[in-house]
Structures are given as C-alpha cells and as structure tokens.
# Entry
Amino acid sequence: ETIAIRLVPPRRRRQGAADMLALIGPTLVVAYSSPVASAASSAVSQAEGGRVVRQTLVIEEWIVDYLRPTVREVPVDIDESRRAVKFLINGSYPGPAIHANEDDMLEITVVNKLFSEATTIHWHGIHPLRQPYMDGARDVTQAPILPGQNFTYRFSAYPPGTHYYHSHMDAVQGARGIRGPLIIQRKADPVKEEFAYDEDLVVFMSDEWRDPSACLKLEGAMPGNDVCADIRHGSFSGKFGNGSAAFPFPLITVKADTCYRVRWVMAGSNTENFQITVAGHNMTLVSVDGGYDVRPVQVRRINLHLGERVDVILCTDQEPGNYLIHAQYDYACALTAGHFIPPGFSAVPTCDFHAYLHYDTEPDLVPRDLSGSGGGRHPRAVVGSDFDLTRPEGWAVTEPRVPEPEPAEPDVRYTINLGLLGPTYSRATDRPLVKGRWYMDLDGQDPPRSWELPTTPLYHSKGRCGVGDIPLINVPEEVTTVEVVVQNLSPTAHTLHMHGMPFKVINVANYTSWCGLEHPTCFVLPWWGGSLLDKCPRPRRKPGDPNDKNIELGGYWGCTYDAATDARTQNLKAPLIKDSFQLWQRSWAVIRFEATRPGFWYFHCHETQHLMLGLQTVFNVLPSKQPPVPADVPTSGSHFCPTVDEGPWGS
# Structure
C-alpha cells in the first residue's frame, strides 16, 4: 500500500480512480492506492454528454502453464518445460473484453502490480480524436505506468468496431499476456440492419511463447527472423490444443440455428498471419480493421495478418457437431520437417493449428483427431473468394460499403523506406539491440535513422527537447491529403499499423508472382544480379543501407515504386480503408490519410523484434490544435523538458 501526498493550486479538479480523494480549493490532495481485487471491475453510469463506461484492469504476475494460463495449477506441479511467468489481466488471458457503445466515454484504470516492470496500454484501432494523449504509446504520448502505480485512461469510444488493447511498453509484454478484446457497437449499424445477426462472437488469435524475452527481442540467424522457431504454438482465445489428453483442441461454442457476427482478432507477437477456414460454414465478410464496413462478399478463407481484424457473418445452419477450424501460418510451413532448414534457423514443429466450432447440443467429447464429429464428419463444401491481402488481387475482392474517392493529387507526398542498417551481428560479444538496427525513415535521409526512445514523451515536449535525431515527420498544417509511398527494402515482410487515424491503400506492388512464397530464390537474391532482372530492373533495386549495400551478401534490398509506370494501377475510386496491413518483401504500397486529427501518431511494424529494433516513425499532425496534456498523464524527464501545454488533472 502506498500513500502519495502533494500540494496543488486552486483549480477545478475531476475525480479519477475510485481511490482518489480530491478537495476543492488550495488543498492537500491525498492519493491512496490500495490493493485491488483480481476480479474484473466494470461499471456503467450516465453523465452529462453521454454514458461513461468504467473498467479496472489489474496486471499481475502469475506462474502458469503458458499453453493454458487460466487453468489454475500449483506452480511446482507444472511441467518445467511449460512453466512460465505470464502477465495476466484480472487473472485472465486474454484480458477481459471491454464493451461500449459508439461515443461512450471510456474510463479504464490500469493498475500495475508487476514487481519490477513499467507498462502502458495502447487501444489498437481506437482513434482518441479529442484525447490524443491517451493513445498509450510509450514515450510518444505518455511515460510508462511504474510498478505499484495506476493510471486512468479517458477517451471516447470511437470508431465503432472490433478492436483490442495491448501493452505498448517493449513489445514483449503483450506476448506475456497483456492484451484483450475491445468491442465498440455502432449507433446505427448497417450490417446489423442487413443481416439481423443474433450475437457477437469474438475469436482472439495469437501465438504463444514460453519466454518471449529470449525469443522475440533480438534477431536470429538472419535479420528479420527471431531467435527461436518462427512459431511453436498458436492459440484460439487463449487456448492451445493439439488433440492430446493434456491439450484438447479448443472449442468455439455456438448455438444451433443462430447467426453470429464473428469478430476475428489477430493479436499475435511474431506470427505474421493465419490463413483461416471453418469447415462446412460459409462466411460473409462485412468489415475490416474494426470499423470499416465493406461491401458484403462471401469468402471461404481469410488471411488475417498481425494487428488486423475481420468481421464475418457465420450462421450455424448445419447438422450439429464439431466442425474443424484451421489456422495456418503459411510463411512458416517451409521450415517444417521435410524441408531444407537454412543454417542457424530453427525447425518449426508445425505451421497448422486447429480448434472446433462446437454446437452446444453436441456432447462435450472433443475429437482427438481432425475428423470432426456429428455433422462435422462430413461437412458441406464451402464456397466463396479467398480474402488474402498478401496478394494484389485480394484488394479487389471487396470495397468500402460507402466508397470514399480520393482526389487525383494529394497535398503532399512522402516516400518512407523500411530497411536494415549494417553492420549486423557477427560475434557473441556484440552488444544487444545495437547492431542490425531497422529503420523506417524518409527516402533520401542519409544515413537513415533508426528509432530511439525520447527521454520525454513527444506529445508533452512537442518534440522540442528530450529527443534525438529520429524519424519524426512534421506534416505541414495547411495540408489535408497526405500520400505515403512505403517501400520495403528487405527480403522480410512487415505488418504495419497506424495509430490514431485510418488510411486508404490506393496501390500495391504485384510482386508475389515472382517473389511470393512459391519462389524462395527471391529471398536470397543479391541486389546486383540474379535471374530476376527482367522482373525488377536493376535501376529500381535499392539496397536498404545506402552506406553498406552488401550486408548479408547483398540480400537486403527492395524493388522501388516508379510513379511513371506504377501509378496506372492505383485505385482512387474505392480504396479499402485500413489501420493495419502487410507490406510484402522487396515490395511497396501507396497509402493516403487525412491530416485532420491533431496528435503524434505512431506508424510502425507490429512484429515484436522489429519494433524493438527501431522499425517505426511518427507523424506530427496539426500541432497548433493538439489539446493540453492532463497533469495526471505519466511523464518523464520533466526537469529538463517540462510539458509545453499542461491541462488540469483528469481533464
């Protein structure tokens, strides 16, 4: 238990956490922080201007079987190969689902009861339009919440849709368990009106790691790859299964003759994607990345990338039974037994993971194999398109329900390169996180700059102090439409996420025909030669490090965008609206966003070790209109970099 005392000047104050006693006037404020129950704590109340939804998230360290962390076992009874420390929220994994309605005010108190680690929480997919300082990005919008402390996030529930929350501290805490779903219901929902579905069903996909700090912080045998095997265990809503007695296949339980809005969330750490199918059940795609409804289209398979969300309508109109759900990490299949495993790489035990769509009238005898039961033994064939945005043709499968055309020309254009800086690791004595740094910086910047943490949050200092020479893009205030050409100058795919605002993908490279998973020679092709010169002419081959072009045998380069030839394939009439997408290896994409939302907005790779090694940038949008930072938002380095514009506590 702690007691913090401080003097405050007279000003209007607003109560934050339930344990705060604030008196009005020139007053002594006593903040008493007491132990908080592990059970989920939530409440809804009505306030001026709308509903307030309150939730308390208590983060604690648990010793568990990391493959079934919510099955309570005495730690000494857990097999040592599976015994691990998980950071559970309210004792659960995933963390408790947070539900709200569009434009509710969310007040979420995060209680950090970790022994020695600070944390932050990012609300993935949420756009805090009026509270950009509540984005939860470490040292961009706030300093971390220290061990033993708590902080109440306050932000509007917008946009509606399927989102999730996760730690944004070091990219590894999420893999330890700090993540959970966040669902915002739309006020007037055209999908609900059209399909009249009965219930929501959230399926939270992830990969699971016994020791993510060892596996996911550093690069492995080749930059862009992790230290451990690409994947060992995939989970469905926190459960892993392989059909054994110890680990039965997870069940996604449904009622017969019911239509569900299945909200798929890909909240993993290192796994870039899952190709997902459901036996015997057609799916109708209705929304992508939470709140961006699309023209409904029937699909038989969805490729769900890291950070993405996809909503489908699925009706349980089949004979009751157990129907196989298959999630394949196709990128890792080439590293399974029977394939050539490159030196230094770890073999992948399996790239296929399974669960069952379980009708609740079916006996709870979970099949031990992949044959299903009841109607699931002989499921009907599913039909529809493959929704796979790795492939260029996937972007044409559907379009926004209400298209938003783009102007012929943007107000400003940027080209951002993603690349690797040499030298890379070569000796066991090399300091960690120093060599082989990734960058995400403007084209022409020489040398390119890898991300380094500011000593004071950028939003607090407005980037004026406590910050080194980092990739920070100050968008001119008179600009509205921003176009960004993103070029991947490496043989590694990246999954990118934008904080605070959506973007439209108006163009993508068509390189999977010669540099896809079916063409492994592309992965090792040096920039100066090879048999694919006709596919990517040498003048368009750009090494990732302009000052060390031959690192890793010259294999780190990309085939760059050429407006003269590539602009002809752009889609300005009805581009898909996203906040996350995969940028294929050696490839490029063109996105646009509206610079109308004041804030410092992160744009980064969502793969854990890439984030740790600097693959990120920030857009500074409308600085003159950025609202003041409430005094209770955690900050750091304020002795040297005081907050430029501070507002009242809890405002």
Summary: The chain has a mean pLDDT of 90.
